[in-house]
Every structure is written in C-alpha cells, then in structure tokens.
C-alpha cells in the first residue's frame, strides 16, 4: 500500500491573524523618533499706547517758574536682559501722576529732571545769548529696571533739537522721535517747552517742521481747488461769449 502525504491548506482566518501579528510586532520594534521640542523664545516687546501728556515745571530759588514743559514721553531702550541673556528692546511711557520734577535755571543753561521709580530722564537746554536762541543740547537717561543685568546710563550732550527764541516757546503737536544714542531714543507727543524767558505762561510758539508740513497740505489742496474752479468759470464765460458772437443783428 502506498501512503500519499497531503498538505493541509491553512485557513484564511489563520493567515489574517498571522499577518496582523507580524504588523503589530514591527510597529513596536521600530525605533520611535525622538520628540522635537520647540525652543522657548522671548515674546516680542509690548508696545504701550500713547503716553499721557504731563506738565513739568521748574522753579528757581525764589519760587518763580523758570522752565515750562508740557508733553507726553515714550522711551525706547535697548539693554542686556538678565533673564534672556541677550539684548532686548523695551518701549515704556512716563506717567505724569507718579513722575517727580526737578531741575535748575541758569542764565545760559537750564535742566529738567524727571524721575519715575527707577528711571531718571534729564533734559539739558543751552541758550546762545548773542542770538537769543536756545535748543535742546543734551539728554541723559539712568535706568535700573528689574530685568537689566546692569544699570543703564546713556548720555548725549551734542544734540540740536527744539530750536527756539528766548521768550518764546517751541511747539510740536505731531509725534517726534529724538535719536540720542544707539541704545536710547525718545518719542514726544503734544510737545510745548520754554526753558528761558518765562513770564507766567508759555510765550508765542515756534512750530516744528512736522506741524508746518501738516498745515501746508490742506492749504495746497484748497489752493488747487480754487484754481480749478476759476478755470471752469473762465471756460464757461469764454464759451458764452463765443455763442453770442455767432448771432448778428439784421
């Protein structure tokens, strides 16, 4: 008798189970790539709104007001941050209600010193007595903010801003940026200042170029419209005269 060996076919369900087991095994044995964590970055500086306009006056030894200033002030500072370990920029407003005012008035120079918490801002004015002209010749900033790795002091005494005439004030309603040093600039809003020749209140104002240019725009537009209206009227009159000239009396 010859014995014949027959291969038994594996059921379809068993094949499916085997393939599923192999796939699961491969998923668990494959190396899982490491999770990439985004590096923490310092948030951008928060820009405050428009600063409040404050009145900052200096009195002399007799108690008479010798320097008048009215303005909103915004500081732009760059410093080395102790928490981030790099140079950061910060924009901050001075608040008139908590800012202390001091200073001095001399015949040829005057200072306005504003102090708020750990910030001291000094304005230095110089008068040319020969020309009776004054200007902002210097700005100094001393700041010790909590996040600073060291105290910041910047100074520039060779400026030439806010040129005015003695006995008159200097005014600039538009936002004005004063570049002081690489690490410090100052924005002013609604500025009016008079460091010399004060007699009770502000004298007549010398307007800055920004305000003058702003006033010239509507004047130029108005003049252009007036010329346009005049041209239309002249064209109408000329056309009317020509139409009458076409008729002859019999």
From TrEMBL:
<keyword id="KW-0325">Glycoprotein</keyword>
<dbReference type="GO" id="GO:0005765">
    <property type="term" value="C:lysosomal membrane"/>
</dbReference>
<comment type="similarity">
    <text>Belongs to the LAMP family.</text>
</comment>
<keyword id="KW-0812">Transmembrane</keyword>
<dbReference type="InterPro" id="IPR048528">
    <property type="entry name" value="Lamp2-like_luminal"/>
</dbReference>
<keyword id="KW-0472">Membrane</keyword>
<dbReference type="Pfam" id="PF21222">
    <property type="entry name" value="Lamp2_2nd"/>
</dbReference>
<keyword id="KW-1133">Transmembrane helix</keyword>
<keyword id="KW-0967">Endosome</keyword>
<keyword id="KW-1015">Disulfide bond</keyword>
<feature type="region of interest" description="Disordered">
    <location>
        <begin position="34"/>
        <end position="54"/>
    </location>
</feature>
<feature type="signal peptide">
    <location>
        <begin position="1"/>
        <end position="29"/>
    </location>
</feature>
<protein>
    <submittedName>
        <fullName>Lysosome-associated membrane glycoprotein 1-like</fullName>
    </submittedName>
</protein>
<feature type="domain" description="Lysosome-associated membrane glycoprotein 2-like transmembrane">
    <location>
        <begin position="217"/>
        <end position="248"/>
    </location>
</feature>
<dbReference type="Pfam" id="PF01299">
    <property type="entry name" value="Lamp2-like_luminal"/>
</dbReference>
<dbReference type="InterPro" id="IPR002000">
    <property type="entry name" value="Lysosome-assoc_membr_glycop"/>
</dbReference>
<dbReference type="InterPro" id="IPR048524">
    <property type="entry name" value="Lamp2-like_TM"/>
</dbReference>
<keyword id="KW-0458">Lysosome</keyword>
<keyword id="KW-0732">Signal</keyword>
<dbReference type="GO" id="GO:0072594">
    <property type="term" value="P:establishment of protein localization to organelle"/>
</dbReference>
<feature type="transmembrane region" description="Helical">
    <location>
        <begin position="215"/>
        <end position="238"/>
    </location>
</feature>
<dbReference type="GO" id="GO:0031902">
    <property type="term" value="C:late endosome membrane"/>
</dbReference>
<feature type="domain" description="Lysosome-associated membrane glycoprotein 2-like luminal">
    <location>
        <begin position="51"/>
        <end position="198"/>
    </location>
</feature>
<keyword id="KW-1003">Cell membrane</keyword>
<dbReference type="GO" id="GO:0005886">
    <property type="term" value="C:plasma membrane"/>
</dbReference>
């Amino acid at each position: 008798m010859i014995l014949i060996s027959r291969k038994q076919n594996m059921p379809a369900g068993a094949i499916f189970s085997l393939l599923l087991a192999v796939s699961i095994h491969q998923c668990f044995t494959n190396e899982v790539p490491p999770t990439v964590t985004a590096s923490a970055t310092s948030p951008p500086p928060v820009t405050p709104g428009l600063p409040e306009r404050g009145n900052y006056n200096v009195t002399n030894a007799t108690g008479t007001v010798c320097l008048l200033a009215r303005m909103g002030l915004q500081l732009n500072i760059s410093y080395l941050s102790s928490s981030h370990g790099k140079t950061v920029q910060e924009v901050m407003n001075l608040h008139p209600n908590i800012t202390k005012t001091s200073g001095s008035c001399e015949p040829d120079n005057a200072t306005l010193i504003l102090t708020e918490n750990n910030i001291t801002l000094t304005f230095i004015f110089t008068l040319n007595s020969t020309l009776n002209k004054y200007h902002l010749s210097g700005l100094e900033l001393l700041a010790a903010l909590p996040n600073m790795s060291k105290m910041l002091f910047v100074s520039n005494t060779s400026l030439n801003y806010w040129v005015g005439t003695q006995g008159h004030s200097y005014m600039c309603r538009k936002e004005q940026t004063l570049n002081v040093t690489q690490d410090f600039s100052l924005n002013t809003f609604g500025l009016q200042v008079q460091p010399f020749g004060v007699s009770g209140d502000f004298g007549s104002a010398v307007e800055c170029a920004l305000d003058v240019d702003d006033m010239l725009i509507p004047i130029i537009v108005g003049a252009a419209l007036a010329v346009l209206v005049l041209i239309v009227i002249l064209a109408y009159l000329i056309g009317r005269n020509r139409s009458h000239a076409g008729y002859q009396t019999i």
